[in-house]
Amino acid sequence: MNTVSEDKTVAIVSYITLLGWIIAIILHNNNRTEFGAFHLRQSLGLILTGIILWFIPIIGWILNIIVFVFWIIGLVNAIQGEKKPVPIVGEFYQNIFKGLN
After folding, report:
1. pLDDT (tens digit, 9 = 90+) per residue, 3-37?
2. Cys-Cys crosslink for 78: which of 11, 37, 51, 63, Cβ 3.0 to 4.6 Å?
């Protein structure tokens, strides 16, 4: 597989549940790229935010709808090969998970 294809595979798979993220990090460790690391950070942030919000009754559940929309935006960006952070929280995820590269 060429690098662009491997990059996109890691990026896309990282958005498919926590299990997909684990698979993506394993694939990424075999061939580290900035594109793969970028989407790993974005998807990890969305996954953790979604889990945390799930435990907050009503307001957290409503906010999870927004997280789901951000998840779709991140997935579409990965499919299109773009390194665009998700709205509002994307840059925060990049900073907080900067050790993930």
Report:
1. 667 789 999 999 999 999 999 999 999 889 999 99
2. 11
